[in-house]
Amino acid sequence: MSVVAQKNHKNQLIHEQLLTLAPQLLELLKGVQQVELENFAMDIGNLELFFPMGRTTDALDTVSNPNKPVKPTELIPDHCVPHITEYPGKILEVTLGATKSNGGTRGRTVTIGGSTAPAFTDFSHPLVHPPAIALDVFDMPVNLPKVLKEHVQEVIGDPAEWARMNVKKFGADIVTIHLMSTDPLINNTSPAQAAKTVEEILQAVDVPLIIGGCGDPKKDADVFAKVAEMADGERLLLNSVTLDMVEAKTLEGVATAARDHGHVVLAFTGLELNNAKELNRRLYEYIPPEQIVMDLTTVALGYGLEYSFSIHERARHAALMGDTELAHPVISASTNAWAAREAWMQIAPEYGPRELRGPIWETINAITLLLAGIDLFMMMHPAAVLTLRDIINRLGTTGHVPSDRIGEWVSVRV
Amino acid sequence: MNGAHPLQEKMRKKSIKEISPIDVYKLLPKTNCGECQESNCMAFATRVVNGELTITDCPPLLTDEHHEARTELADLLAPPVRVVTIGKDDHSIAIGGKYVLQRHEFTYHNPPPIAIDVHDLMPEVELLDRIRQIEQFSYNYIGRKLVLNAIAIRSTSHDPAVFRHAVKKIAEISQYPVILCSFDPAVMEAGLSEIPASRPLMYAATRENWKSMAELSLKYHAPLAVFAPNDLSLMRSLTKTLQKSGVSDLVLDPGTFAENGLADTISNFSLIRTQACRDHDELFGFPILGAPIAVWAGEEISEEVLKWREAITASMLLSRYADLLIMHSLDGWVLLPQLIWRFNLYTDPRKPVSVEAGVKIFGKPDRDSPVLMTTNYALTYFTVESDIKAANLDCYLVIVDTGGISVESAVAGRIFTAESIASSLKTYDIKSLVNHTTLILPGLAARISGETEDVSGWHILVGPKDSSGLSHYIREHWPPEA
């Protein structure tokens, strides 16, 4: 999404102020993560325990006869028969990246989507594909915070090496290359040069790639067309196509290039479902629905995250109810969390160091939208990435509830 | 959507979205007396259905003559999740009262209070200091003061006398609503007897102690939490039994499992609320209590990690239907995101994302005062407004219509452009307000400053990236050098 690229360029100041505490946090969270990975399993076998067959008919006697005079002396048995909703709709499954057998060169692919119910509401609809995480790389030197520099100093200005590190060190499922330098107002790098950068990254890592443009509907169209052709068959995600491209008359070119060369487009709209539907309708003229992912806009906690939360709940509900124009997987740029001043600014000490406020802001931004159904996250802070992955694993793991100790908080001495 | 579910046919009651103003109007006095300050009964009914007024705002309805209609209206408009109040009179807090499952369907009511714990073995100085910290913690967010709301008193002593003493100490210095936490009815009664008229929330009735807890709840008119960890059948059983025992103010705690069991926790909260809202399942039609504090009873690991985990758990439970939270950490970085997310989540989603474009005047600007600019995204605007007010600036603020998009996104999306800025300056005739032609652009629009100068003919200053820097910026840069 162009906004991210813009942000990452414009808010270098912010970025410099991040991460100072990251190593400590990472150390701590690392230990935590190992514990969870051992437990990661989809324990569907336990479902029956939670959904006893049949239903007791007296479940609501209390309600219909509230004035029954006799006080019970024994616990009145009752059963919970969970409300399970079967929805007519289903979110499309979209595969990013292609292996050799499918015409690409990726070592692995990532499939997102496939949901048949709102995320994490009941165990009869486990996630079809766990949400994936993409990490950023920039195609030009950017100022990074000191602490991050300790880890990446040697790769700044070397996108290929940076991509390699995102995969090896931080476990990125996908790498996003922001072609920030193509912006006519920055370096105006040519489409051919941009394609060369992408090529280098394709050679450096074998995960699927997201190609981030600069936000200019004309320039992005030229760049995406060139990149699409160069990376024929790789199933890149082109980030992004917009209604501005309709106005600039460049949408057709991008969409057909994506179709002809086997890529996926990210349809970006600003918190407005009618626009999202309209953009998708335009895209259907040129490209199959299975090659469209949506970005409905992620706003920072404190600056309108509730709009993002509700737009995603609405979109997902409408899609599951049968609105196929919204039945696409959705992406969220959790990095936008850093736009919140509470994340980056030095404020009164009672609110804690920004080295903790920042990463918790990105983490909560991401997890909140995870609950609203996000299929793919674009992230930045390693602690936020670790935590989100942990939470995704935990939310996919049922039936290991340590009920015996749960009440202990009442009397524990802390 | 849930037509297959048998309960629905049986319990069918109109949801708030299905109630029309006519349904309400039919039961009103229909005299158009205007005592409610509305022009007529139909206007009143419309505002009631929108959740802007309640039936108690109609004085004639409160008379005996309309008793029956009032009861019928109360039934019609009752939220599927009951309201439970904790604490006495002026200091009470209301929890629950939800009409819908998803926020966008209507709006959420009664933001979940956040209670912070203390325990009965804390040395007195420490105890009083913690109470003071709880009461003083606040954050000023777009002009609103966000605060913590209640105190959870835990019995770690298991000794009625010790617990009673702690409750007494706290009652002496704090008016905050309290939650008394002990599974031992003797300890609970010791606490209750110290504050017999304060309606503390009793935490909690369990499979083992429900009978004694029910008696105490009735004796002290105190609401009662029901603790059935990861066992919704037991939850129903307890809720049903307690209701039959005469206890009607219940709060449900299906257990907060922050590590193993997190999936079950989110699912339990969701199922309880789904059945209440979609099926009007009355055994689940109560507020839900989330206890992120439970992370502190887990494995012994670093405090920072426990705080991190508590913060994440709290935010997830806010999003997933908790009506009340009990937390332990008093760290600002843990609490700040909760206070802000709670505030955001409980705003009315029917309100537009944007504010009206135009010119806003702050303080008493004269013809030499600065002209600032921002976009009409509501949260951008309110942030800038609150910073200008805090800095006591006398200035004009031009609000450009970007379709409710923030500065950064509007620049990236080519909505906030040299042309749209020039056209706004002209439309609102800013030249007629001041004797200069200098405009301060938001720092995040720096990249378009040159172009804007060319197109608008105004001299452009690039202001701070964040409006919190406005006070300093104006001091340093205004008036501009000739």
Task: Spell out the blueprint of helices and strands.
The complex is a heterodimer of chains A (414) and B (482).
Chain A: H1 2-10, H2 12-16, H3 22-39, H4 47-50, H5 61-64, E1 93-96, E2 110-113, E3 132-138, H6 146-152, H7 159-168, E4 174-178, H8 191-204, E5 209-212, H9 217-230, E6 237-241, H10 243-247, H11 251-260, E7 264-268, H12 273-284, E8 292-295, H13 305-320, E9 331-333, H14 341-344, H15 354-371, E10 376-379, H16 382-395
Parallel strand pairs in A: 3-4, 3-10, 4-5, 5-6, 6-7, 7-8, 9-10
Antiparallel strand pairs in A: 1-2
Chain B: H1 6-11, H2 21-25, H3 41-49, H4 67-77, E1 83-86, E2 93-96, E3 114-119, H5 124-136, E4 138-141, E5 144-147, E6 150-154, H6 160-173, E7 178-181, H7 185-194, E8 201-205, H8 210-220, E9 224-227, H9 232-244, E10 250-253, H10 262-279, E11 289-290, H11 303-319, E12 324-327, H12 332-345, E13 358-362, E14 371-375, H13 378-390, E15 395-400, H14 407-412, H15 418-427, E16 438-441, H16 449-456, E17 459-462, H17 470-477
Parallel strand pairs in B: 3-6, 3-12, 6-7, 7-8, 8-9, 9-10, 11-12, 14-15, 14-16, 16-17
Antiparallel strand pairs in B: 1-2, 4-5, 13-15
Helix pairs in contact in B: 5-6, 6-7, 7-8, 11-12, 15-16
In words, what does this structure look like?
The complex is a heterodimer of chains A (414) and B (482). With 414 residues, chain A is an alpha/beta fold. Chain A has a single domain (2-18, 90-398), classed as TIM Barrel (Alpha-Beta Barrel), CATH 3.20.20. Helix content of chain A is 40%, strand content 11%. Chain A has helices at 2-10, 12-16, 22-39, 47-50, 61-64, 146-152, 159-168, 191-204, 217-230, 243-247, 251-260, 273-284, 305-320, 341-344, 354-371, 382-395, and strands spanning 93-96, 110-113, 132-138, 174-178, 209-212, 237-241, 264-268, 292-295, 331-333, 376-379. In chain A, helix 3 (22-39) packs parallel to helix 16. Chain A is globular, with a radius of gyration of 23 Å. Chain B folds into three domains: 13-77, Orthogonal Bundle (3-methyladenine DNA Glycosylase II, Chain A, domain 3), CATH 1.10.15; 83-345, Alpha-Beta Barrel (TIM Barrel); 358-477, 3-Layer(aba) Sandwich (Rossmann fold), CATH 3.40.50. Helices cover 39% and strands 15% of the residues of chain B. In chain B, the strands form four sheets. Chain B has an eight-stranded parallel sheet with strand order 10-9-8-7-6-3-12-11. Chain B has a five-stranded mixed sheet with strand order 13-15-14-16-17, with helices on both faces. The longest helix of chain B has 18 residues, at 262-279. The chains are: A alpha/beta (414), B alpha/beta (482).
